[in-house]
Write a structure and sequence with these properties.
Blueprint: H1 7-17, H2 46-51, H3 57-60, H4 67-75, E1 83-89, E2 128-130, H5 141-148, H6 156-195, H7 202-206, H8 213-227, H9 233-254, H10 291-300, E3 316-322, H11 331-343, E4 348-351, H12 361-373, E5 377-381, E6 399-400, E7 403-404, E8 409-415, E9 437-440, E10 444-448, E11 452-456, H13 459-476, H14 482-491, E12 494-495, E13 499-502, E14 505-511, E15 520-521, H15 524-534
Active site: 89 (charge relay system), 291 (charge relay system), 460 (charge relay system)
GO molecular function, one term: serine-type endopeptidase activity
Signal peptide: 1-25
C-alpha cells in the first residue's frame, strides 16, 4: 500500500470532534559535531516549509539533508553521468511541467506500433510499464487471505480477527466523517452565502449578529470548530472530505472481502502466468492517484527552473513502473516490476509501498537479490505504523531472520522538520536492525498530477529523498558500486546525540542511535565528500 501518513485525516479531526567519470577531489570536511545545534523556535517560512528537506541543520537549524549546500559548495554546476531511477508506484504524470524533461525513454521501442520492438517482453513500453492495466482499487493483502476462505493458510486466523476489528472500525469511521463533513459543509455554505465569499475569518464570523435561523446555526457550528483548532472551514472541509474518501475506500474496496479489482487477466498467484500482462500507459488513471507523481518530484523535479519544486538529483531519467494500486500491491507485480527496472537499465529503484502480509514474499525477495546481483540499489519506505519492524512484519524486506540477501537494499524511516526530541515523524516505523537510515518525510512539498503541487507526509516521501541522494552521488562518482553507494549513505549521515520520541508516543523516549542500523540521518553534503574520498 502507498505509504502516505494519514495522521492529519484520521486523528486530528476525529480527536477534535470525536561531474567527469571520477569526479574531482573535495577538500571539505564532513560536518560531524552537531551537539550544539540550536533548536529552531520560530515557525518555518513558506519557502522553508516547501524546501525543508534540502536545508542544512547547522546553517538553518532545520534537519534537512544539506542538498542545497551540496549543490552550492560541492557540485557547482557539474552534471555528472545520467542515472536511471525507477519509481515503482501508482504511475507518474509524465506530462507534468516539472517532470516531463526528466523522463526515461526506451529508444529501442517504436511508440504505438503494437510490437515488442526490443524483444523485452513488453509491448510499447516507452516510459516504463503498467502492471495494473486499467485497475485502481484493490483489497488489502490480509483481506485477500480472508476472502480466499483457506483456513489452513498461515496467519489466516490472525487475518480474520484483524478483518473483523478493522471493518467494524472503518464503518464507524465512515459514519463519523460523513456526519462531520455534512456539518462543516452546511456551515461553510451558509457563511459563504452571507459573506458572498469563501474567504472569511473567525473574527468576521464571531462578529455576526442575526435572527436568521440557518445563519445562526452556521455561526454556532463554526465557533465550535474554531474552538477546537480549526481556522478555516474551507480548508477543513477539504481535509475532512479526504477522511470521508479514505473510509469509503476502506469499506467498499480495501476491506471488502468480496471485492476483486484485478483486471489484467492473469493469475496473481502464478508467477509465470500470462507474461507481459498490463500495458504501457504509465500515467495514473485519475487525478487523485497522485502518490507516484509526488514521489517522482522528490527524486528529480527539475531544479531551479522557476516552477514549484526542486528534486534532489539533477541528472536523472525517471522510469515509471505502475504496480501500486489503491490498496495492497500484489507480490507478483512488485517482483516483476523490480526485474523490469533492472533489465531496462535502472540503477536506483524506489519502492514507497509496503504491507504486513505477503503470501509470496520470496518472489519479491528474489527480485531484490536480483537487483543487488546486478549492481542496482533498491530504496524502500519503512512504513507508517509507528512500529518496530525488527519485531513487526513489514514487506518487502531483504532478510530472513536478520540474514540479508542483498547488500544494496536501503530501508528508510521519516524525519519531521523539527530538530530535537520531535525529530522522528510520529508515524514512522523504526528498527535497530531493519531500518537503515532516516530522512525527511513529514510535510514534504512536491509535484502532483496536472501541473499541481502539494504537501504530503509519510515514509513514502523519505524513501525517494534517499533515492535522490543515491542517484546524485552515483552520478558524480559513477565508478562506485551500488554497495559502496549504500554504505556511503549510511556512514556519512549525521548522528543525532539526543533522545527522541518514538512512534508518536510521548512516553516512549529513546536515544536516536536505537532506532536505525546506521544511527544517522542522511546528509547529501557529507555523502558527496565521502564518495570523493572513496573514489580517489
Amino acid at each position: 500500500m502507498k505509504l502516505i501518513n494519514k495522521t492529519l485525516i484520521l486523528s486530528a479531526f476525529a480527536a477534535v470532534l470525536l561531474s567527469s567519470c571520477g569526479g574531482s577531489a573535495i577538500l571539505s570536511t564532513p560536518i560531524a559535531n552537531i551537539d550544539n545545534t540550536p533548536i529552531k523556535e520560530t515557525e518555518l517560512t513558506l519557502a522553508e516549509k516547501q524546501n525543508w528537506g534540502h536545508l542544512d541543520l547547522v546553517t538553518d537549524t532545520i534537519p534537512g539533508m544539506s542538498v542545497d549546500k551540496a549543490y552550492s559548495e560541492i557540485i557547482k554546476g557539474k552534471k555528472g553521468k545520467t542515472i536511471i531511477v525507477a519509481v515503482i508506484d501508482s504511475g507518474i504524470d509524465i506530462n507534468h511541467e516539472d517532470l516531463n524533461g526528466v523522463l526515461w525513454t526506451n529508444k529501442k521501442e517504436i511508440p504505438g506500433n503494437g510490437i515488442d520492438d526490443d524483444k523485452n517482453g513488453y509491448v510499447d513500453d516507452i516510459h516504463g510499464w503498467n502492471f495494473l492495466g486499467d485497475g485502481y482499487d484493490e483489497q488489502l493483502e490480509y483481506i485477500r487471505l480472508v476472502g480466499s476462505g483457506n483456513t489452513s493458510a498461515p496467519r489466516y486466523q490472525e487475518a480474520l480477527a484483524k478483518y473483523e476489528e478493522d471493518y467494524k472500525s472503518a464503518l464507524s469511521g465512515k459514519e463519523r466523517y460523513d456526519q462531520i463533513y455534512q456539518k462543516v459543509s452546511e456551515a461553510h455554505d451558509a457563511l459563504t452565502k452571507h459573506f458572498n465569499s469563501e474567504e472569511y475569518t473567525p473574527e468576521q464570523v464571531n462578529a455576526i449578529e442575526t435572527d436568521n435561523t440557518e445563519l445562526a446555526e452556521a455561526v454556532k457550528s463554526a465557533k465550535f470548530f474554531y474552538a477546537n483548532g480549526m481556522t478555516s472551514l474551507a480548508e477543513s472541509k477539504k481535509q475532512i472530505k479526504g477522511g470521508v474518501e479514505y473510509f469509503t475506500d476502506q469499506v467498499n474496496f480495501n476491506l471488502n472481502k468480496d471485492f476483486n479489482g484485478r483486471v489484467t487477466g492473469d493469475n496473481p498467484n502464478d508467477f509465470n502466468d500470462k507474461p507481459g500482462y498490463g500495458n504501457g500507459n504509465v500515467i495514473p488513471v485519475k487525478k487523485s492517484e497522485s502518490h507516484g507523481t509526488h514521489v517522482a518530484g522528490i527524486i528529480a523535479a527539475e531544479r531551479n527552473n522557476g516552477l514549484g519544486a526542486n528534486g534532489v538529483a539533477n541528472n536523472v531519467e525517471l522510469m515509471s513502473v505502475r504496480a501500486v494500486p489503491n490498496g495492497d500491491e500484489y507480490d507478483k507485480d512488485i517482483a516483476k516490476a523490480i526485474r523490469y527496472a533492472v533489465d531496462n537499465g535502472a540503477k536506483v529503484i524506489n519502492g514507497s509501498f509496503g504491507k504486513s502480509f505477503s503470501p509470496h514474499a520470496q518472489w519479491v525477495r528474489d527480485a531484490i537479490k536480483y537487483a543487488s546481483d546486478n549492481d542496482v540499489i533498491f530504496v524502500h519506505a519503512a512504513g507508517n505504523d509507528g512500529k518496530d519492524v525488527d519485531t513487526e512484519p513489514n514487506f518487502p524486506d531483504d532478510n530472513v531472520d536478520f540474514v540479508e540477501i542483498s547488500n544494496t537494499y536501503i530501508r528508510v524511516g521519516a524525519l519531521a522538520p523539527e530538530y530535537g526530541t520531535n525529530i522522528l515523524a510520529g508515524f514512522s516505523n523504526y528498527g535497530k536492525q531493519n531500518v537503515d537510515v532516516f530522512a525527511p518525510g513529514a510535510k514534504i512539498y512536491s509535484t502532483t498530477p496536472e501541473n499541481e503541487y502539494d504537501t504530503k507526509g509519510g515514509t513514502s516521501m523519505a524513501a525517494p529523498a534517499v533515492a535522490g541522494v543515491a542517484a546524485l552521488v552515483w552520478s558524480q562518482y559513477p565508478k562506485l558500486t551500488a554497495a559502496q553507494v549504500k554504505q556511503i549513505i549510511m556512514d556519512s549521515g549525521l548522528a543525532v546525540p539526543s533522545k527522541v520520541i518514538v512512534g508518536g508516543d510521548a512516553k516512549d523516549i529513546r536515544p536516536f542511535s536505537e532506532v536505525s542500523k546506521s544511527k544517522k540521518m542522511v546528509n547529501t553534503y557529507n555523502a558527496l565528500i565521502m564518495a570523493s574520498q572513496l573514489s580517489k
